[in-house]
């Protein structure tokens, strides 16, 4: 079984930084690519970032490019999302997802975490 648990969400001031973590319980962690998505209240999940199983390929949604960084530590079975210069529009529930191939669509991922809330104060 594959289980994902996000952590690190909370309240951050606009312009500040936050690090989200996603710990994945899976014997095949190193074979899984992972992604981060977010959903504001009443809106669909939006692609944020993805990283392949080896960590050598990363790509981002246009709204976070240059401000957010995705990375992974395969020894710790953990994926990170470093959020810099956070803006009020970044406030949402952030979800970690895992699958075979990193893509921008939710359908590409087989496993999801319950989410962690990020609130941005202006």
List the topology elements.
Elements: E1 3-7, E2 10-13, E3 18-25, E4 33-39, E5 46-51, E6 58-60, E7 68-73, E8 78-83, E9 92-99, E10 111-112, E11 116-121
Parallel strand pairs: 2-11
Antiparallel strand pairs: 1-3, 3-8, 4-5, 4-9, 5-6, 7-8, 9-10, 9-11
Report on this model:
The chain is mostly beta strands. The protein is 0% helix and 50% strand. The chain has no helices and 11 strands. It is globular. The mean pLDDT is 95.
As a percent range, the share of helical residues equals under 10%
Radius of gyration: 13 Å
Order of helices and strands: EEEEEEEEEEE
* Distance from first to last alpha carbon: 40 Å
Global outline: globular
Class from secondary-structure proportions: mainly beta
Number of helical runs? 0
Strand content: over 45%
What is the β-strand count? 11
Q: Mean of residue pLDDT? A: 95
**What characterizes the major β-sheet?**
7 strands, mixed
Q: Which regions have little confidence, pLDDT < 50, spanning 5+ residues?
A: none
Entry keywords:
122 residues, mainly beta, seven-stranded mixed β-sheet, 0% helix, 50% strand
Summarize it.
The protein is mainly β and 122 residues long.
